[in-house]
Design goal:
alpha+beta, five-stranded antiparallel β-sheet, three-stranded antiparallel β-sheet, 27 helices, 10 strands
Length: 805
């Protein structure tokens, strides 16, 4: 009976699973359509005509309503109009600027970023239209299935000789025909919109590709002569009255600001201002607390500069393709705030003066590039800059040498020498006509210096934040943060430095014109591939696998710390159990991280099984000892015959177990030397564990007294000595015993118990000293080893007379 019941339940479940339908709106129509494909007997009778028609009418009504929503593309048209207007505006701005081949890198990058942003917006619109077309196709497919069902049902009824309900069938055809008209209308509307988006996308792509081509040419021409030298008459012929009008036009162009951009991204500016106010208030409110954090000492003096710097570096990359004037203002604020924050970190006022001067140079250079200063004037500016600054910097280097104290200022002088060399090379390049190279060298050098300064302050700022947060968490009373807070902060700082300086490297790639953008640089390095037969290993796969495995190690450490501080210690779990649990957590998390890393490397489980097979062969030939030690380590962790902290006797040498690892156990002996014992030896050989169940131990002292001593007095002395020592346990009672008559002495033993085996050497020493002192006081003699020699006379007549003589 039970088997029949289970078999019937299984059949019901199969039938229930096979009756799944597409949606609630078309459940009846699609189910019957599927039945019509199998056999004519599956079609319902005339009694189902009304419900089926009502279900169809409901489906058509909802589809019509949905098609009306899909056909309403007013919002998409509005966004498309905005993108088209922005493209038209940028095209009008570009037209009077001449050929892109004569532009600066900043201008090319700026407009190229704007075109890329437009392409992203158009891609998003195209995706929305495609999703709507997919919905239309789904409705068309369902309507076609319904039409097939009703046509087939009519044919079945006709073959059965039933009077056909012509009016209902005609109404079905009319309803589906009306739905088909709506489908065609919606499809046509979406196709027209898609064509508009595609046409604008092609125009934007052409404009962006032309700028990309010009940018590529400019980067390739960095080390080519592209201007007249200062010794050529053609250079001086460029100084015409038209330069003044070019400067004026460039200034007017730079000051143009797209108000729509401000309207679209005003919320970011508002959020940035709110963050600025919050950070200033936070720094001033916790000023005394922040003074305890060493990394934040330079921030306390200039809270407004710290807040401004934090807000800028936080929100800068959120702004999509900012206009030139917007970027210039951000750069100005960042330079001012960074300089104000960095001055307290310098050694003297002269270094602060040089840093302020460098910030001024960056400001002037960016301003001239913003207004697109004509090339002849910009070349004169670069030459004057080098001519003025080279003597000033040399003077600062010589002064720093004269006033140095114990090696101070070495880094400062090295940087000054580097800047002098850069300015000298740039000056020579401008004089010789290598304008692009000279301009790029100065800009890249100063920008690199400012970026390094930003990175250093960002590291210090966030490191201080980590220290502050760690201090607050420690005060919260959480045991995990009290015990592992410093280590956690150290790990976070290490990860922070890796992320910031790793990002810095990719940020400087386009600055030094190694790549056009950060993304292109990352794509280049990530596509490096090593091929091993049919297996391809890319740099991106390798980096992802390393990151996954590294994160698994960090997660393992955190979970071990939390389990140790918050769970195991609170419940007073045995230390050996705690170690076993932490080891299992570590092995489990690392194993998961290892498997994830393998999957990121493209190794499937099949490849992993092959590796395990090869590993097994290796075990069979030469890794028996390693695997034996590994399995023995697992036995030690689970069975726990030996735990961390136990006192053990190995090969006649006493020590304390410090660590139980995968391969070996570390034991520290009384000489503070560490013995590394293979785990297999701890399992297979005899090991004395003094502290397996408890740390109580018995001490046996052997004492000998001279023959003729008062034995009762000796026993009384031994009893009194053991009773007077504070570490000797009262229970079990001390036991003085007369053992035997020795060769030179009467032998006694004093047997006492102590609670901790670690005190065994000290207690033994103190008891022996006390026994010796009491024996001297009571005049009990401790004899030296001695032997009695007995001589007997020789009997006359045994030996001849000659021999006796």
């Amino acid at each position: 009976m039970v088997l029949r019941y289970l078999f019937g339940l299984f059949l019901c479940l199969c039938l229930a699973c096979s009756s799944t339908v597409w949606s609630a709106d078309v459940t009846s129509t699609e189910a019957v359509a599927g039945e019509a494909e199998t056999s004519s007997s599956a079609f319902p009778g005339l009694g189902e005509l009304g419900p089926r028609f009502n279900a169809l009418a409901d489906f058509v009504a909802k589809s019509e309503l949905r098609l009306q929503g899909l056909e309403d593309v007013s919002k998409i048209n509005d966004v498309l109009a905005e993108v088209s207007a922005a493209f038209q505006t940028i095209s009008e701005e570009i037209q009077p600027l001449g050929s892109p081949d004569d532009w600066y890198v900043d201008r090319l990058t700026q407009y190229l970023n704007q075109f890329n942003q437009m392409r992203q917006d158009l891609d998003a619109l195209q995706e929305k239209v495609t999703l709507r077309q997919q919905e239309v196709e789904d409705i068309r497919t369902k309507a076609a299935k319904d039409q097939e069902f009703w046509d087939a049902w009519g044919e079945v009824l006709k073959k059965q000789g039933v009077n056909l309900p012509h009016q209902t069938l005609q109404q079905v055809k009319k309803t589906l025909a009306q739905l088909d008209i709506s489908l065609k209308k919606t499809t046509s509307s979406l196709l027209q919109l898609q064509e508009k988006i595609g046409e604008l996308y092609r125009q934007v792509t052409v404009s962006g590709d032309s700028l990309s081509l010009a940018l590529g040419k400019l980067r390739k021409a960095t080390f080519r002569k592209n201007a007249h030298s200062f010794g050529s008459a053609k250079f001086y012929r460029q100084f015409t009255p038209d330069l003044q009008s070019q400067v004026r036009d460039g200034l007017l162009t730079a000051l143009k600001f797209n108000r729509s951009y401000l309207g679209e991204n005003g919320w970011l500016l508002g959020l940035m201002g709110a963050v600025f106010v919050i950070v200033v208030g936070f720094l001033r409110h916790y000023q005394r607390k922040l003074q305890e954090t060493e990394e934040w000492h330079f921030i306390i003096r200039h809270s407004w500069a710290a807040a401004s710097f934090f807000a800028i570096i936080t929100f800068w990359f959120w702004f999509p393709a900012p206009p030139p004037i917007f970027r210039f203002v951000f750069l100005l604020l960042a330079a001012i705030s960074a300089t104000s924050l960095a001055i307290p970190l310098l050694e003297n006022r002269r270094q602060a003066w040089v840093l302020s001067l460098a910030a001024l140079v960056i400001f002037l250079t960016s301003a001239f590039r913003l207004i697109d200063l004509p090339q002849p004037l910009f070349r004169i500016y670069i030459a004057l800059l080098a001519t003025i600054f080279i003597p000033l910097l040399i003077q600062q280097i010589l002064f720093s040498k004269r006033t140095r104290h114990q090696g101070e200022g070495r880094l400062f002088r090295a940087l000054m020498r580097l800047i002098v060399i850069v300015l000298a090379i740039s000056l020579i390049g401008q004089i010789a006509g290598y304008m692009n190279f000279s301009t790029w060298l100065i800009q890249a050098t100063f920008e690199t210096g400012m970026v390094l300064l930003f990175a250093k302050m960002a590291v210090m700022l966030i490191s201080g934040g980590i220290e502050l947060a760690n201090g607050l968490l420690v005060q919260s009373g959480r045991r995990f943060f009290r015990e592992f807070g410093e280590e956690l902060a150290l790990r976070l700082k290490r990860l922070l430095k890796f992320l910031i300086y790793g990002f810095l490297i990719f940020y400087l790639l386009p600055v030094w014109r190694l790549f056009a953008t950060m993304n292109s640089g990352w794509n280049y390095f990530s596509q490096w591939t090593l091929t091993f037969g049919n297996f391809h290993l890319s740099m991106q796969m390798l980096v992802s696998a390393v990151i996954a495995f590294y994160l698994s190690l960090q997660v393992s450490w955190v979970l071990q710390g939390i389990s140790e501080a918050e769970v195991l210690t609170r419940h007073d779990v045995d230390r050996g159990v705690r170690d076993a649990v932490k080891k299992l957590i570590h092995y489990g998390v690392v194993l998961v991280g290892f498997l994830v890393a393998l999957s990121l490397l493209g190794l499937s489980l099949q490849h992993f099984v092959v590796v395990l097979g090869a590993f097994g062969v290796g075990i069979g030939f030469g890794l028996q000892d390693i695997v034996n030690n590994f399995l023995s380590g697992l036995i030690l962790l689970f069975e726990r015959p030996i735990k961390v902290g136990d006192g053990v006797l190995i090969d006649g040498e006493y020590g304390t177990v410090n660590h139980i690892g995968l391969r070996s156990t570390v034991v520290k002996n009384l000489d503070e030397a560490e013995l590394i014992v293979p785990n297999s030896q701890m399992i297979s050989q005899k090991v004395t564990n003094w502290t397996l169940t408890n740390r109580r131990v018995r001490i046996v002292l052997s004492v000998g007294v001279a023959y003729g001593s008062d034995l009762e007095k000796v026993l009384a002395i031994l009893t009194e000595v053991s009773a007077e020592h504070p570490l000797v346990l009262k229970e079990p009672k001390p036991s003085p015993l007369f053992v035997q008559f020795g060769d030179s002495s009467l032998d006694f033993e004093l047997r006492v118990w102590i609670s901790n085996v670690d005190n065994r050497p000290d207690v033994k020493n103190e008891l022996l000293l006390a026994i010796d002192r009491r024996f001297r006081e009571e005049e009990v003699e401790i004899p030296f080893p001695q032997q009695d020699l007995h001589l007997r006379s020789v009997t006359p007549g045994i030996f001849p007379s000659s021999e006796r003589e």
